[in-house]
Each structure stands twice: as C-alpha cells, then as structure tokens.
Amino acid sequence: MQESMLFLMQAFVVAIFIIAIILVTQFNSFFSMGLVLSAVVLSSVGIYIGILVHNMAFGIVMGGIGVIALAGIIVSNNILLIDTYDLLIAEVKNPTLAQYREVIIRTCIQRVRPVILTKLATILGLLPLVLGINIDFVNFEITQGAPSTQWWRLLSVCIVYGVLFASSLTLLVTPAALMWRAMRRTRK
Q: What is the DSSP string of 27-41?
C-alpha cells in the first residue's frame, strides 16, 4: 500500500508538471496556467464531498487514479474556456474594461454548452458505477452491489463529484478570475 501511494503521488506530481509545461507553452501565460491548475486542485474538494456523501473510505489505488483522471477532465474544460477568451480578446485593439467584460460574457455563452455536455456525459456514464448498478447485456440482467462495481465505485465517485464541483469552478470562478485580471490590466 505504501508503494502504491508513493507511485500514485509521483504520477500525480509528474502529471501536474507536464500539464503545467503544456499550458505555459500553449497560453504563453503563467496566469492562465495557474488558473487551470487551481481548478484541478480545488476540484479535489468535490472528491471529499463525494466520499463523505457515500460514507466511503479513501482507497489509495482507485482514489488516486480517480484524482489523476479528474485532473485531465478539468484541464480540458478550462482550456476550452481560456483559449476561446484569448482568441476573442486578441480581436480587440486596446480593450477597455467594458470590452473585456463583453468578451468574457461572449466566451461563456459560446463555451457553456460544450463544457456542460462533456460534464454531463461523464457523470451519466459513471452514474451506474456510483450507484453500484451492474448491467449485464449478455444475460439481460441488472444487479446492484455486484463485486465488479464495488471495485470501481470509489474511482467513479471521485470523478463524478469532482466534475460536479469543478463545473462551478469552470463556469463561475474562471470567468471571475479573467475579469479580475482585466480590471488589473485596465488600471495601469
């Protein structure tokens, strides 16, 4: 168990480091990289809420894999939002605070559907595992509490509750942080 925990911790640190390098090269901005990675870190609150709601113990292997998988999901949605914002703001010469606000609103309107649909697909796809439901398509049986679902349940709870919590971060906190940066830029 100690070896598994050490391996998963190292894998998480390496994954975050690689994500950080890719984000800095893509956005050419440490602020955007920090914004995306803060959403990854803050989404772990959703994991703990899910574990508490389902009264589960945190398992190192499946919980750790769930945290790493969640990081990939959260990063992709924040990249969509920030990249669209960067493309739209590049079209404006010497933007004012009102133009920044308009671009942030346009970004959110354009990207709310893809963000919600990817999160909804993830949640609905993992919901049978969260509820402990096993669907046997060969014998046309639906059972609850099968051994196969018990193994994967912690992983799915981590991802589902992390995605639910991160939805608010992506759709509310990220635009608010972008507006904060815009307000700082227009003051200078």
A: H--HHHHHHHHHHHH
